[in-house]
Every structure is written in C-alpha cells, then in structure tokens.
C-alpha cells in the first residue's frame, strides 16, 4: 500500500485548517504545512496535527511556495489541498480504498473539485485537478498566481471529490496586485498569465480590460483548449454585460474552434437569440444542448445546470411562446426530474396542466 504525504501552503487559515486536516488525517502518512506569514493561530493549529510545520518567506509566487512544500515530502505519493478544502465522508472512504488498490505505475490521480452548490447541496460547478502525484517524478508547480501542477505519464481519473468550502468572501486585491507588480517590472506574460490576469480583471469588474486580455490570450494561439473555451465564454458574458450582442455571439461561436460544442455555449447562444425574440433559433440551440454528451474526464470547468435542467426549462419557455404547450410541458417535466422542488418549475407544471386539461375537454 503506497504512503502519502499531504502538502499544504497556508496563511491566516485558523477558521478552516482544522476542518481540512480532520478530513484527511487518517489517510495521510505525513502532513507538511508550509506557512507563508500567518498572523493568527494557524501555525498553532497545524502543530496539533504535525511537527512538520515550516516557514516560507513570501516572494509573490504561489508556485515557489508549493514547490517548497513538495520538497519536504518523504512518502511515495504527494497529496495537495488548500485549507478551505475538505474530503466529505464518502470521499474519505474512496480515498482510503484507492490507497489500498492504487497501481504503482500511476503517476498522477485526478479528482473532481466541487466548487459550488445549490440550496439542496447539489454540485452545480466542478472541474478536475491532478491531486495525488508520485513523488519520484518530481512534478513541479508553475505560475506566480493560479499556479498549475505540471504532470505527465500514467494518469488515473478517479471518482473521488475534493469539496471546496470557501469561508472568506474573496482574496481582496492580492492576486491582481501580484500581476500588476509583474507588469510594472516589465515581465512578459505567458499565455496562461494572460488568461488568469483577465480573470482577475473580470473579478474586479474591469470589463473592458478583461476583454482586452482574454483576446490577447486567444490571439497567442498557445492556450490550453479548456482555457480557450472558458475565455470565449467569459468574453461572451462580458459583451452581454456591455450589451454588445454581436461580439457576445461571436465569442460563443468561436468556442467551437477548440473542441466539440459544449452545453454552456449552446445555452448562451440560446439566450442571445431568445433576448432578441428569435424564439425558433433559441429553441434549436437549447435542443442541441440537451443532446450533447457531457464531458467525462477532461480537466475543464463544468456548469452542471447547462448539462441537466437548464436547457429543458428554457425549451419550456420557447415552446410556450411558440404555442407548443405539450412540448413545453414535457421539457418542464424533464427539468422537474432534476429539480423536483423548484417553485418556478412547479408553477409551470400547474400552468401547463391547466391549459392541456382545458384543451382535452374541448376536444
């Protein structure tokens, strides 16, 4: 059975660190905590779980801190988490089972990263990340901000999930200030830097600048295809916000250059047609969204609503406007199968059943 080193970098995480470590302490054979300058009780809490707590002088580079943490590992595999991540009970058991059965030829294990949830606790957005890597491969982190673990070799895509339980509202200006200090020093951004700097600009509501950097990123022609697709979606959303409908449509369609159509883009195109009252066109795109096969093992972001209930609910709206009430009712019922307690869907159910009942009585 392989041994596991848990490697984490932390700063001022007293509210969440124990929760994270409690969820993994029975799985990890070694816990390594690298502190980058905490001013609260983070280090004291960490020392309740491990004596391997190290200080790292912050140099505006997350990859450097993570690589330092990895350098302290001594076990066969390295697992990494952030302090506001946890393994739910089901996933703890899955990870324990994997630990017992993991093929030693595997170089990296990917896991789902569940990012957001609806009121019922259902996952609404997620992606995959390389989480457990073979130490002897000496995989390295790259990137000052939004760092990436560069892996290769034999990859195993597990069904284990890491759950993100964010407590702090945001990171303030930390990340964008790191990027802007790098720009001020005259650094040339990599394609990945351009993409993530654009994300930071968008998070700070600097829409025009964000659009500029997303376009610079796409124009390099060197971006990872999942980032290209995401950039097109974000550009489309920016132009929707700016009421520039032509560019919103342009970038939704451009996403098809990089991979097979995704339901997120099809729903966005459907929305753009629907807002122009082009209902037949909107319905066509929402229908396409319902017919696509959900991506399984890629590492990109997935908005689960677009692959489940949302296009059916929108088809309900479209068919109602077209006077096709039976079809509208059928798609509302499919949406209800995903969201049985949604009040708007339940209202639609009553509405269409009353219409169809009256029609049947007349017939």
Radius of gyration: 23 Å
CATH class of the largest domain: Alpha Beta
Query: Which structural class is indicated by helix and strand composition?
Result: alpha/beta
How many structural domains can be distinguished in the coordinates?
3
Topology as a string of helices (H) and strands (E): EHEHEHEEHEEEEEHHHHHHHEHHH
Number of helices: 14
Low-confidence stretches: none
What level of helicity do the residues show? 40-55%
Shape: globular
Mean pLDDT: 95
Strand content: 15-25%
Number of strands: 11
CATH architecture of the largest domain: Alpha-Beta Complex
Distance between the termini: 70 Å
- Could you describe the largest sheet, including whether it forms a barrel? 9 strands, mixed
CATH superfamily of the largest domain: Spore Coat Polysaccharide Biosynthesis Protein SpsA, Chain A
CATH topology of the largest domain: Spore Coat Polysaccharide Biosynthesis Protein SpsA, Chain A
Structural overview:
The chain has 14 helices and 11 strands. With 363 residues, the chain is an alpha/beta fold. The protein folds into 3 domains: 161 residues, Spore Coat Polysaccharide Biosynthesis Protein SpsA, Chain A (Alpha-Beta Complex); 88 residues, Serine Threonine Protein Phosphatase 5, Tetratricopeptide repeat; 91 residues, Serine Threonine Protein Phosphatase 5, Tetratricopeptide repeat, CATH 1.25.40. Helix 10 packs antiparallel against helix 11. The protein is globular and about 75 Å long. InterPro entries: Glyco_trans_2-like, Nucleotide-diphossugar_trans, TPR-like_helical_dom_sf. One of its GO terms (molecular function) is transferase activity. It comes from Anaerosolibacter carboniphilus.
């Amino acid at each position: 059975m392989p041994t596991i080193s848990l490697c984490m970098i932390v700063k001022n995480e007293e509210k969440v660190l124990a929760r994270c470590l409690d969820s993994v302490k029975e799985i990890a054979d070694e816990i390594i905590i690298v502190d980058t300058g905490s001013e609260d009780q983070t280090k004291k809490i960490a020392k309740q779980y491990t004596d391997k707590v190290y200080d790292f002088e912050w140099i505006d580079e997350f990859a450097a801190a993570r690589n330092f943490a990895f350098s302290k590992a001594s076990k066969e595999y390295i697992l990494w988490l952030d302090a506001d991540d946890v393994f739910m009970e089901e996933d703890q058991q899955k990870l324990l089972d994997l630990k017992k059965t993991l093929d030693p030829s595997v170089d990296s294990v990917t896991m789902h990263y569940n990012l957001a949830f609806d009121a019922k606790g259902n996952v609404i957005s997620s992606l995959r990340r390389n989480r457990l890597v073979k130490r002897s491969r000496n995989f390295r982190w790259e990137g000052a901000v939004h760092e990436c673990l560069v892996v290769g070799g034999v990859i195993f895509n597990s069904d284990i999930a890491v759950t993100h339980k964010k407590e702090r509202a945001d990171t303030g200006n930390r990340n964008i200030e790191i990027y802007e200090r790098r720009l001020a020093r005259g650094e040339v951004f990599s394609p990945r830097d351009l993409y993530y700097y654009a994300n930071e600009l968008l998070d700070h509501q600097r829409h025009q600048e964000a659009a500029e950097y997303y376009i610079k990123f796409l124009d390099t022609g060197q971006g990872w295809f999942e980032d290209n697709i995401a950039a097109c979606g974000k550009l489309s959303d920016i132009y929707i916000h700016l009421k520039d409908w032509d560019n919103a449509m342009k970038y939704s369609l451009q996403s098809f250059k990089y991979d097979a159509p995704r339901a997120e883009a099809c729903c966005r195109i459907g929305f753009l047609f629907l807002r122009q009252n082009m209902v037949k066109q909107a319905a066509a795109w929402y229908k396409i969204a319902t017919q696509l096969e959900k991506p399984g093992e890629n590492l990109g972001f997935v908005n689960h609503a677009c692959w489940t209930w949302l296009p059916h609910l929108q088809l309900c709206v479209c068919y109602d406007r077209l006077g096709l009430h039976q079809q509208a009712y059928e798609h509302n019922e499919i949406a209800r199968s995903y969201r049985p307690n949604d009040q708007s869907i339940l209202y639609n159910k009553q509405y269409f059943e009353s219409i169809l009942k009256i029609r049947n009585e007349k017939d």
